[in-house]
Amino acid sequence: MAKRFCNHVLLRVRASPSPPPGLRYLLLSTAAPTPGASPFIAGYLVSSCGLSPEMAARASKYLSHLRTPEKPDAVLSFLRSKGFDDDQIRKTVSARPQVLCADVERTLEPRFRALEELGFGGPALSELINRNSRFLCLRQDRVILPNISTLVQECGIRESRVLTILQRSSSLVSRSASSLKEVIGRADELGFNRNSRMFEHALCVLSRYSRATVASKLGRFARFGWTEQEALHAVRLGPFVLTMSDEKLRKSMDFLIGEAGQKPARLASNPAVLTYSLEKRVIPRYRVLQFLELRGLREGTMAFLTALGLPERKFLEKFVSPYVETFPELHQAYVPAATPGKSTGIIAV
């Protein structure tokens, strides 16, 4: 499947300069909104597309020429036939109102067929469009296919990984060729190995931020005792730490360093722990381990950060379930604390 997909992409990129009619023109107009929204379309957006009155008022400015429901009805029917649910239709129309003006046979069907040929079908197709409505108006032969070719041929990304990357970060291939190459260059500058899975993650993360923003995010780690090299080391191991908010990072660092006694350098080598929920994972597990250690019951040499990384079932089997009869309060307090939606238990040490 993956090999056929990549062969198809490379053949399309190398094909003759006269692309198929369905790929020759932009699907949807990106022109500025026209003043004087139609009362009909505003009501239609609310009743048929699920938009709020406020959202409908904004979106209807792009659709002022519509006076009858025939074309929008055909578009909605087509989207539903492709697996779009009501919420996905609402989000797509809100992000790209002009889709309601599209001709189903001449524009939407060729566009969706082209995406299906790339390996997207069923829920994956509707989710892709819902996450990035630009796929409805980009010229596939000019933007998407060449960018995919760059990822495969120049970056050496394995064929089996291409679809996964597109699903995770569709914006990576919906940008200009120069913008994609700039993102790739920044990943190289940060020291990512192109043969590493983290290189793929880095491309997805870096595509969301400017160079200046990434520099700012790297600089904030110094406030918690990381050297520049330690910060770069952490990012190479887990590019996702760049996506953390300042507040989340501060709270995680404050607890892990201040209360749990972890060294900053140790955290730099285990960046994933910074992303765990303090309330539902880090603090409850820390209290359990503290409870057992004070009673001389913590066997083995498993480090705290390693214990944090265990799947929930494994953590229960190793540190909670063996003591259900001896210390029932441990289980009674930990399970609610670690369960989403439950009130937090208090583990007395």
TrEMBL record:
Keyword list, A-Z: Transcription, Transcription regulation, Transcription termination, Transit peptide
Any Pfam family hit: mTERF
MF terms (GO), sorted A to Z: nucleic acid binding
Domain of life the protein comes from: Eukaryota
Biological process per Gene Ontology, one example term: DNA-templated transcription termination
InterPro entries: MTERF, MTERF_sf
Gene3D superfamilies tied to this protein: Transcription termination factor 3, mitochondrial
UniProt keyword Transcription present: yes
Family that this chain belongs to: Belongs to the mTERF family.
Protein name, UniProt field: mTERF domain-containing protein 1, mitochondrial
Gene coding for it: MTERFD1_28
